[in-house]
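Re: weekly structure request thread

Next one in the queue (135 aa):
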Amino acid sequence: MIQRIQTIYLLLAFLVTGVLMFFIPLWTLNGKAFYFMQDQFYTILLGLSTMLTIVSIISFKKRQNQFVMNRLNIILNLILLGLFVYRSLNLSGETNVSEKGIGMFLPIVAIVLLVLANKAIKKDEDLVKSVDRLR
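Done, posted below.
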């Protein structure tokens, strides 16, 4: 069913990866904000993450597939976070005009939400298996 708690977690992860990344800059350099859309590689990775989240929401009847897709999405967000951190560490921090933004830590929020969704999916799967044993 769509009204399960893991669907709410997945919708929040979709909002973080799909919507908020358009409005929150990753960092600011010389007064000019850098958004993820300015780099094609970041755009592709974030698009894949958003697409995996949507497909996971839609496939609510197949809990095992949903669980696997969420794990892939977690790995994808970890890669994205690593790239953001690597790029921000290479920014020059010696001047007062370079600021690291909070947008680069949004994949952490998505990872936490995906882990919570996986826990809820696992809980549902265990419940279904226990009911099947009773029959």
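The mean pLDDT is 82. The helical segments are 5-19, 40-58, 63-89, 106-134.
Next request, please.
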